[in-house]
Amino acid sequence: MAGAMVLLGALTAGAEENAPAAKEILAPADRSPYGVCAHLAGGGEHEQMPRNLQLMRAAGIGWARADFPWSSVATKDGGWRFVHLDRVLAQAEENGMRVLPILDYDVPWASPAYRHLDAWEEYVTRVVSRYRDRVRYWEVWNEQNLEQFWREKPDPKNYQLLLARTYAAIKRIDPQLQVVYGGLAGIPWEFLEGSLAAGAARSFDVFNIHPYRAGMTTMAQLEQYYAELVRLRETLDAHGAQGKPVWVTEMGWATPPGVSAIPQGILAAAKEILSPEAKEWPLAVLIDERLPQRRVWSRESVEKILPPGGRVVPVRLEALADLSPKKTPALLLPPGEICLTPCLEDLQRYVRAGGVLILLGGVPFYYDTGW
Questions:
Q1: How confident is the model at residue 361, as a pLDDT?
Q2: Residue 236 to residue 241: CA distance in whole angstroms
Q3: Is 110 helix (H, G, I), strand (E, B) or coil?
Q4: Percent of the chain scored above 90 by pLDDT?
């Protein structure tokens, strides 16, 4: 979600009578309904935070949505650290910004979180209690309908277990605090209705979606999109969430024909530049189960976006040291911004020897991480 532009607003189709109250709940001090997703609590964005917040504020943005991960504050021996979160809030307040924290993800000694609710509740209670007078909205998880974020096969009933426990803990701290349903990737009707059927409407004050769209270029597509939002409002109302605001906390609206068109175009252009006459184009592809992209990045997924003549040559992390540009003139890295720190010298050597790195989803030298 890094850098994704977001909107914070009330979706009131079919519920206009509730709009004034929702607007009052949602509006920050400067009335700005706009926000940015940013990893303010860690990584390179934390280091650049003061300048980034200044730029956000200058652009008229009033909110920053940021993970406050369990793993960043808790230690296995029972210790707690909050210096980085203290800094986030201090810098945000200094720049007139409001923060929407996301309470999310598990820790190695309590995974998955919904099966360790006592430990999860302690994390929630410590974080929310510390910032209760400075933060009034708390989002519970991020894109829990995706396995890569939920950590196992998503189940709306399991999410409701975690959401209900979190809601009760937050309301005990301060009944006026607002609990935000974790932003769903898209509008996944089965997951959404499953969580509502399990009683989720009693466990949030604000609903939340990430309705990314691609290839939305005709009036018919726009009308279909609007119809889905109306259906969402009706679905919430039918399950006891009448009048509760809907926030859009991640949003992308791409005009190319589809999500796969961009990487396909990049790879086709790469082959045309690097090996225009070659009938077969061997492409080294970093595929390793230790990488966080392992659930969405495989030989099969890459083969679907290769140009004619392209051939995947799978490469594991250890094999980067011996990778030869003469055999594979280009190396395709997984999408993302995670730096392959232990292999950085191998990547540099490959490029200096004439190899080409192809990056589909961000320059992978942003976060200093291992595995």
A1: 66
A2: 5
A3: strand
A4: 64
